[in-house]
Amino acid sequence: MRDFSYLRAGSVDAARQAAALPGAMLLAGGTTLIDLAKCGVAEPDTLVDITHLKGLDRIDVNERGATIGALAKMGHVADHADIKSRFPAISEALWQAASAQIRNMATIGGNLMQRTRCPYFRDPANFSACNKREPGSGCSAIGGVTRGHAVLGTSEACIAMYPGDLATALVAFDATVHLGERRLLVDDFFLLPGTTPDREHAIKPGEMITAIEIPSSAAARRSTYLKIRDRQSYEFAAASAAVGIEFEADGRTIRDLRVALGGVATKPWRARAVEDALKGKVLEPETIRAASLLAVEGAVDHGANHYKIELAPRVVARAILKLGETA
Amino acid sequence: MTKIPVHLDINGQHHELQLEPRVTLLDALRERLGLTGTKKGCDHGQCGACTVHVDGERVLACLTLAAQAEGRTITTIEGLAREGELHPVQAAFLEQDAFQCGYCTPGQIMSAVACIREGHAGSDEEIREYMAGNLCRCGAYPHIVAAVRQAALEVAS
What we know:
The structure holds two protein chains of two kinds.
Chain A: E1 5-8, H1 12-20, E2 24-27, H2 33-39, E3 46-49, E4 59-61, E5 65-69, H3 74-79, H4 81-86, H5 88-95, H6 100-105, H7 108-112, H8 166-172, E6 176-179, E7 182-185, H9 186-189, E8 211-215, H10 218-221, E9 223-228, E10 239-247, E11 254-262, E12 269-270, H11 272-278, H12 285-292, H13 307-325
Parallel strand pairs in A: 1-3, 2-3
Antiparallel strand pairs in A: 4-5, 5-8, 6-7, 6-8, 9-10, 10-11, 11-12
Helix pairs in contact in A: 5-8, 11-12, 12-13
Chain B: E1 4-10, E2 13-19, H1 25-32, E3 51-54, E4 57-60, E5 73-75, H2 88-95, H3 105-118, H4 124-130, H5 141-156
Parallel strand pairs in B: 1-5
Antiparallel strand pairs in B: 1-2, 3-4, 3-5
């Protein structure tokens, strides 16, 4: 790991200003950044440590929703009683992510800044072509080993999969990210690769994530995060679904439905086509399975990742049906 | 790069070091302070061999900069036993034969102590899930789960 200078920020404003300088980066839990520095992917000149800032780790839950400070740890949010009861999908997405140690380090703000696990992106010593790392250098993944790559939202420049779980649940429930005063839907915070896969987030130099906010809803209260993977634990998703449901008074007719996919797309993937197809419908396995196929409309595989196109709708259907059983 | 002063509070002892900013807590422990109980496995946050406690919570020393740990309370495997008496988790690992080569064991034990304290050792299934961040390439998992289960019962009683 190349050396860098280390600066401990005394305030949010000082951190934002220091990190806006060329070669400077914010350092929170470090679970992505220090790892990527060791891989030779991140080569910061200065790290601005924000982990000693006070008051940014609060978790506030009230009738309107939850506001979670950028420095709250993943593990603390996962175990928070009000998050578990009012936003089960958020808690489940968090405790099924990474390991207990990493969840004690990684912050909510840093989680949104997590980079892809594309093995070509992570290995500059062996693969010089990566449009995410070096714009215009090409893509080593296309034509390579693609089992873990995206089938939705890809471009000719990049097929790297977005690996996170939390953000998948956040986009399902219309969460916003606070960049100081500026607010953005989490869905808009993540960018499609298009021709600029090096640009992953709609964050500008001099901005810093200060909090996320999740509005309350009946669908968020009856929600779940289903994650299917090669190993039972401590593994990224082969396909995952954050699902929330609200029934009419009859307990069978779907009034509101939220569906987002993880592990299959280049960004957290809201599946509105599934939601629209099922609102007003009665919860029946056949109807659910048919509508869940809409989750992968427009999917394009690169050979070894074809299985995700079959797997993702099944994960969506199983998650919806599981929530229906608790009605 | 210029070295910076870093003050670390480890196992109740205060240490004053001059370190390059890039030095991880793991390298500071092993290379500078001779605390080699904390192991370097993958050095990328994937194996859990370097697990230590910072302010009472289990974290990975390989992805923590030593400078970030300043002002925090650090406990390593060397700081677990009290007055020559093994911690109940250490004793349970011996009793259950919860290792083969032993390389992952300090990390497993530090992780298990925290796992029990967090209240995540309520069943074998829960132990497996919340100990998933500690890999054992010898495959001693069944005995590790038995040791954590035994220690959790002892701590509770």
